[in-house]
Amino acid sequence: MTVILLRHGRSTSNTAQVLAGRSEGVDLDDKGREQAAELTGRLGELPLKALVTSPLLRCRRTVEPLAEALGMQPVVDERLSEVDYGQWTGRKIAELAKEPLWTVVQAHPSAAVFPDGEGLAQVQARAVAAVRDHDRRLADEHGGDALWLACTHGDVIKAVVADALGNHLDSFQRITADPASMSVIRYTQLRPFVLHVNHTGARLTAALTAAPSSDAASDKEPDKEMPPGDAVVGGSTD
């Protein structure tokens, strides 16, 4: 199963350098609306089977044009919502950078718990669980490999990608998730494969065809058959 983790388009809070968190009514700005309109073209003819989104307005607005073009109804999942930043919500980034907790968030995020909010470790646990649950559901519905998209938030995406890479949450600040970027993970029984991180190009097509069955692989390359989910020693053969 393969998930495209889409960060919402640029929002009015991004432009204002304010930590939006779960504030109500934070919408896309003009650039964000352009990014949402461009999403269908960026995904090309990829066979998406489902759209899942955070409940927050900026995510729902981002997937609206794509959902309309595909004739699909997005599934809303609270577990993909933005971090609950508690008392940090709605404050200027420049002000927050002076807080003692800011250093913890930067250097030791697994220990960061926002005042009257949640911890980043909790965020990672709920978001990874959501992605895994939708993967299992769609695998059952479609009989194997399927491609789906989840629209969520920057820190949420970074936490899920860190997990897929097998990295400790304390390294997640090394990962970038720009507005309207796409990060792609293929989950197998053995391990996840991270195919793209922070993709902002015109089209997302590389490495996103359905995984071949073992029979198909053996017919094509009988000397290279290997268990599903194994990595190619020496790198990809494509």
Automatic annotation (TrEMBL):
Organism domain of life: Bacteria
Annotated region described as Disordered, given as residue ranges: 210-238
Active site (record annotation): 8 (tele-phosphohistidine intermediate), 82 (proton donor/acceptor)
GO MF: fructose-2,6-bisphosphate 2-phosphatase activity
UniProt-listed GO biological process terms: negative regulation of glycolytic process; regulation of pentose-phosphate shunt
Compositional bias ranges of the Basic and acidic residues kind: 217-227
GO cellular component, one term: cytosol
Entry keywords, A to Z: Hydrolase
Pfam families to which the protein is assigned, alphabetical: His_Phos_1
Keyword Coiled coil: no
Binding site for substrate: 7-14, 58, 82-85
UniProt key word Magnesium: no
Family matches, as PANTHER family: FRUCTOSE-2,6-BISPHOSPHATASE TIGAR (PTHR46517:SF1)
NCBIfam families: MSMEG_4193
Protein name stated in the entry: Phosphoglycerate mutase
